[in-house]
Model the fold of this input.
Amino acid sequence: MIVPFIEVVGRAQAGRRAVGAFTVYGIETAVGVLAAAERRGSDVIILVSAEAFRSRLGRPLVDATRALCEQSTARCCLQLDHATQLDLVSAGFGAGFGAIMVDGSRLSFGDNVKLVQAATEIGLRHGGHIEAELGRVEGDEDSSSLADVGLLTDPDAAGRFMTLTGAACLAVSIGNVHGSYRMAPVLDFERLARVAQSVSQPLSLHGGSGVPPTVLRDAITMGISKINVNTELRRSYFAALNEHMAELQPGAQLLRMGQLVSQRIEDTVYGKLVEFDPALR
Ligand SMILES: [Zn+2]
Done:
């Protein structure tokens, strides 16, 4: 079923756990994500990247994923990830996203505030919510290229930023990156603690792929309520294709291939959901 974004992240924050947010590029992946959430009894967020949404695949992907969420017993929210322009925010809410992550991380503080304020107003008109970013999480959202750590979130500015913008959730930059970590990830927990102190809204961590479970556990304890995972899912997708290509290609068994991809995604997502909320029975 579809539930509001603030309900999903709010419940995670209240329970001192993190909700998993998983990027999909096709419905085999969405089927796998929802199957894992149903099996685990977890809430879940399904992400569509801005680039995927802008492609010809975008609108049908959103429609199909929404339909899958509506049919699912899992509590699910659909979110457009990394919109940098207001026209995309309007198009996203118009297409049925419940939340949009608005990325003003390349702007000055003042321009980031203005962008997120305007996006929040658009969201209000649609009954949707905005996640914003302060600091800059580096790397390419749609590939696994190596990335270095970007500008870190300023704890002193974070509280003011959230008050001024009215955003529902804040993406932090504390040593996390999109894609693949060039060095072993080191998260700045002191910074995270200070951000968590100055911001009452739920905090999100992008670049969850490749961060060791114990590090993620500590981040959750210190206030991370949402973790985005993309790279590990894309790797699982290709691993399933590689593994089953030889056996399925001769008969061109495409339906079976899709099912095996969904199964592999389900297993990967299930493992993440256990990591993000180990206490759930
Ligand atoms: Zn991101």
Q: What stands out?
A: Residues 46 and 78 are 5 Å apart (CA to CA).
